[in-house]
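Mods, move this if it's the wrong board.
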Amino acid sequence: MTPGGHLRASPLKTVTMRATAVATSLAVLVASWPAAAQTRAKGPPLLRDTETEQLLRDYTRPILRAAGLEKQNIQVAIINDGTFNAFVADGRRIFVNYGALRQSETPNQIIGVLAHETGHLAGGHLSKMRQQLAQAQTQMIVAMLLGLGAAVAGARSGAGSAGAAAISAPQAAIMRSLLSYQRQQEENADKAAVKFLNATGQSAKGMYETFKRFADQGLFSTRGADPYMQSHPMAVERVRALEELARSSPYWDKKDDPALQHRHDMMRAKVSGFMERAETVYRRYPISDNSLPARYARAIAAYRHGDPRTAIAQIDALIKTEPSNPYFHELKGQALLEGGKPAEALAPLRKAVQLSHNAPLIEMLLGQALVGTDNKAYAEEAIKILRAALAREPEAALGYTQLAMAYGRRGNLAEADLASAQAAYLRGDAKTARDLASRAKTRFAIGSPGWVRADDIVNTKPVKN
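Not the wrong board. Structure tokens:
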């Protein structure tokens, strides 16, 4: 179109463009269904924390066992998003927003959500949905082609609207069928979740409470909506069916174990301290609240937003209360490291590694502190610790970055380039990864293990979206 011009389409061209647009949009939907799993850097922004991830493993382990998925190595990944949401996208991970963790008042509430997502995995809903989408795309194309014939005839006879109707009516029916299928999947996942909770002796009340709360909040927005054009069951109907199913369980009134509730409260306090503004943290956990979770949240907020000395004093008080808690020692080490005192961070981080039985994320933090001291005497220890951590967390870009620096301290430029290339690759920077790997190849002996790993990166083709 030129400035000031006007494009006028014939009736036939209009319906053809409309049908093509609908078919194309469906093709995009098919292609983007597993988008979260397609690339490393372009996936959802994730948060990592040993304490929280261990709690989520403890939550999901019995559910996955009941679903027959315990040997599938399914992980729970935390998304950096403050809203309440959870979903599955690649068949091997359950994604949960940190907002869902923060807003779940009891373990049972978030376990119910995780059980629902496990229901999707156990039912193979992702692959089945892809098949339905592919089938719907084919049906759309056929409907479009058949409709074009009617459109041509209509254009010749002057009845262009009849051709448009011949295309749009089948498309609407196909979309309704697709959405109906997705609603059935959601209902099946609800039923599976209650089944898994019953099998593990847990109540479905938390799941019901969560869904009920969001149904009440979204009730107005669904009023007047076409139930056949919704991808999820209508809120009121879904909650009513879930309540009936959940109340029939003999475990309906079963409470969470107090020790598990305490861990849950500590996790929520940690999420608040790290992810929310200081004033929000102090509003949730006022000075008058002397509980351990409240003290934990305020100590984190003090280190993140306040006076470092005050923060260290508060963390030391936590350690005095629970000297065997690895995450208090980790917090102290992290506060000192980020406060520009890597040498002072070594002792608490070594203690945290010991108490956590060599948790890899904490080992990486220790490795970072060792590198941060600029003391060449620590380089070999850092390399040993970081390599051990990366053997169990091979997709941690930060670990490779610190490993590259440690190799640089030792003057091992080949390994430094290779580690830097691996870090860039994991960040999704394919060009930098290939450039660094190419340089690493020139430093390694041809055919050596390092040369082979570098060559793999050079020859890796970037994933196309």
